[in-house]
Design a protein that fits this description.
Blueprint (H helix, E strand, L loop, with lengths): L8 H26 L1 H13 L10 H25 L8 H15 L10 H23 L1 H20 L6 H45 L4 H28 L2 H6 L9 H10 L10 E2 L3 E2 L2 H31 L1
Antiparallel strand pairs: 1-2
Helix pairs in contact: 1-2, 1-7, 2-7, 3-5, 3-8, 4-5, 6-7, 6-8, 7-8, 7-11
Keywords: Membrane, Transmembrane, Transmembrane helix
Length: 321
């Protein structure tokens, strides 16, 4: 693709995205196979934290979140194998025809070799499973992990501002909250960095293109990707917004006067927007706040508009030539 379109800037963005996606998948394998402590420590911290006393999450809300992720993953998978991998579900005959092409790719059959129906079905199932697996890694792991931190953050800061929490207890609970934030960042900061970079690499080029697709299912797919983009930027931003409620607690009944001055200075330092200890990070130090999210969205909008204008001018030149 890149070699055939060396003079097209979008081809370089697409190539970069392809490289990042494949690298991301191998890094995910490494994290879940050789660094299982990252996710295990996060799960244990969430399950044993003292912050559960403020928990307001209902079981139906957690189930609805899991259902939504599952439906989106299935939707993206079906459209992916239908549009990009050539698997048709219109009839059994078309399904087998698409399976023959996939079987030749997977099993290295020659173009003239006859593909038995069993091999065609196995190839299509393999494509479907592969697509499900990749969409789970790329689109479900990150928001699911950040949802845990989001609910803990929301319930904790809302809970202490309702009163009845002694200052000494609030300091202990606040350190517990920062501990969970640190465990969460150990696990998903790399995921979030990849996702934010891929937003620029893909949507920065194809944002306006995707709005002009005529295929209904592909449009639904792109809108689903936009939903994931919004969710993965909204969750860390809301965590930062909720953490600012600590100022309200300090002012509540003069609580800041009852604190040790050294601990109060540390807490005030934590309220600086770019301090990594109280926010969800993308990469090593970048805390995703409303300012970061807004800058990212405006950059994507600008890049995509420039690319669209460049394509329009190129089409005009080709017509006149």
């Amino acid at each position: 693709m890149l070699l055939e379109n060396k003079k097209t800037i979008s081809a370089y963005f697409d190539f970069t995205l392809e490289v990042m996606t494949n690298l991301y998948i191998y890094v995910s394998h490494y994290a879940h196979w050789f660094q299982r402590a990252w996710i295990e420590d996060l799960v244990v911290a969430v399950q044993t934290t003292k912050l559960r006393r403020f928990n307001s999450l209902q079981p139906w809300q957690a189930k609805l979140c899991a259902l939504g992720m599952s439906v989106c993953t299935l939707l993206l998978t079906l459209n992916w194998v239908r549009t990009l991998l050539g698997v048709s579900f219109n009839s059994l005959e078309e399904f087998l025809i698409g399976g023959e092409a996939n079987a030749r790719t997977i099993f290295w059959f020659s173009d003239n070799a006859q593909v038995v129906p069993v091999a065609a079905v196995v190839a299509n199932i393999s494509r479907f499973y592969n697509s499900v697996y990749h969409h789970m890694i790329m689109n479900s792991f990150l928001p699911t992990a950040m949802f845990m931190i989001y609910w803990i953050s929301k319930d904790f800061f809302n809970g202490i501002n309702q009163g009845g929490v002694p200052v000494a207890d609030s300091l202990v609970l606040y350190e517990e909250y920062k501990f969970i934030i640190a465990k969460g960042n150990n696990y998903y900061s790399g995921y979030l960095m990849y996702y934010m970079t891929s937003i620029i690499a893909f949507h920065g080029v194809h944002l306006f293109d995707s709005l002009n697709y005529n295929d209904l299912f592909w449009k639904i797919t792109m809108y689903t990707y936009y939903l994931y983009t919004w969710l993965n930027l909204w969750l860390p931003t809301k965590v930062i917004i909720h953490s600012k409620k600590m100022k309200r607690y300090l002012a509540l009944n003069g609580n800041y006067l009852k604190m040790d001055q050294r601990k109060l200075k540390i807490m005030l330092n934590d309220m600086i927007p770019w301090v990594p200890r109280k926010g969800i990070k993308a990469g090593k130090d970048l805390v995703v706040s409303s300012q970061v999210a807004a800058s990212l969205i405006s950059s994507v909008w600008s890049y995509s508009m420039i690319v669209s204008v460049a394509k329009y001018i190129a089409n005009l030149r080709s017509q006149f030539n």
